[in-house]
Amino acid sequence: MPGGYKDRIIRVDLTKPRVSIELPKEEHKRKFLGGSGLAAKILYDELDPKTDPLSPENKLVFMTGPLTGTLAPGFGRFVIASKSPLTGIWGEAGSAGYWGPELKFAGYDGMILEGRAEEPCYLWINDEDVELKDAKHLWGKDTVETEAIVRSELRESKSRILIIGQAGERLAKIACIVTDGGVAGRCGLGTVMGSKNLKAIAVRGSGRVEVEDEARFHDLVGEIHSIMNNDPRTKSLKSYGSAGSMEGNEAVGDVPIKNWMVGSWPDGARKLSGQQMARTILKRPVTCFACPIACKREVEIKSGPYAGVKGKGPEYETMASFGTMLLIDDIEVVAKANDLCTRYGIDTISCGSAIAFTYECYEKGLLTKEDVRGLDLSWGNHDSLLRMIEMIGQREGIGSVLGDGVKTASEKIGKDASEFAMHVKGLEMPMHDPRAYRSLALGYATSNRGACYLQATSHWVERGMLFPELGIKERPDRFTSEGKARMVIDMQNFMAIVDSLIICKFALSCGYTLTHLLGLVEYVTGYSISIDEFKMMGERIFNLKRLFNNRLGVSRKDDRLPERINKPSPEEGTKHSSPDLGLMLSEYYRLRAWDEEGRPKADKIGELEL
User: Fold this and answer.
1) Closest to 540 (Cα-Cα) out of 55, 36, 161
2) pLDDT digits (tens, 9 = 90+) for 383-416
3) How open is the CA angle 295-91-75, to the nearest 5 degrees?
4) Which end of the chain is more exposed for a tag (fewer CB within 10 A), N or C?
5) Domains along the chain?
6) pTM greater than the 0.90 cutoff
7) Cβ neighbours of 52 (radius 10 Å)
8) Nearest-angstrom CA–CA distance, 431 and 256
């Protein structure tokens, strides 16, 4: 057994119920490493394309990477994957904190959940012991209450727990999975967990992760720490979190405002920034396993209408989703909205997008006060935002419709509602505007899980972060569409590997190089991988997910953006022009060796050993 891996994957059949332990194949580790790549291989091989995402036959895969649980900085993350109930295609979400490393310490690389329990239950993994426990008394409780009760029952204060809230129980398709380090937010994977009658998964491990070459590994970790600690991005993230970029993002037109209709709102951005949080409600920065950055925020509101809110603070995406998207500039309101979503177990990006969509439908006359139970959905209304989150979490009234995402909601409302539904392949767009960075348009259109910048982070390059080891040596003009396809492909392939190792992208941006990653892999696992092999691994993983989607009917017709993004903003500024997606997409397919409908050609499949 190479270092880094535990060579054990738990399989839990909730229907029988039965727990078994399986060994991952050496060939699969060599081809897909772990994390997202290995999860994709499992789901591609095991899942019938016709499977209903909420049926017992769907599978929910939890996977760590070979460096998870080591002292390499930034490797505290894990990946969850399934067929998404929100989009009907490849679904993937990640989270940080301590749950992933704890699973490794318990002796496992990952877990496959299948079937459906007869009654609500939770899973308790305590080293070798894996058991299902009754959770009928937890059903209907929020994530904060549930965590406290489970921790008390297990009498294990150091156990790590992931949980669904009432939104997942009630099968709202934008439900997330809440962990000690944040949330696995996207694609509605909390809904899959709820459909299986599984309320929580608690884990406690007493082992460690073995490393092949301890001396060289610790030398390299020390070098990386030194670089990260002196990187200005580390200092900014530690001081202000991800929302520290809010004002800068707004200044270049990157922040969506008023459901993507408005080009600029500098005063709102200032009031919603990480700097403003540091001056007001920040209690302390919070770190994840073996990470020196501490980019997460713990907040506390001590007075006023939202007094008592404390715990996980809003990240940049949440600040934009509940702030700029709705013209709300009160940071305490956003913190309260974030707290409600944490408790109910709702993805804040999808939730904020759904509510902004509803506000616009209300403004344009597609919804009346009667349709929304008397709420005043005028832009900037705080109370209506908070009430709508509750309605989504409880699946009440219009909230039941919105809980299934903007694509489904727009189809149910009809008329011109689809014009206001900002999604790609059913996944609500994240809070970065392709009209500010043209490469994002191509990345959103071709991302395997729907609208997602994390599966390429190509806008980093347009901001000036270069990757010479990947051949990305020059900063391109962010407003040009020509020549972007090659860079987007290279970054997508790289991020496919990043999500299989699994390293936090904030940590990656704070001084890591490709050489560092290859060194860590070699010293931990003993695998000596060249840069070309590394790049091919990423290409293999990205294409495997595309093949998963092709089996489900995804083709060129789906690789598109909302019409609003294809049209210039009516306001002056960076959004006064739009990306040429057609130009980029044709070049992208050619360079990917996909056919005109966006399917990998047979020669490419053979080259990638798929």
Assistant:
1) 36
2) 999 999 999 999 999 999 999 999 999 999 998 9
3) 35
4) N
5) 9-204 (3.60.9.10), 240-423 (1.10.569.10), 438-607 (1.10.599.10)
6) yes
7) 13
8) 6
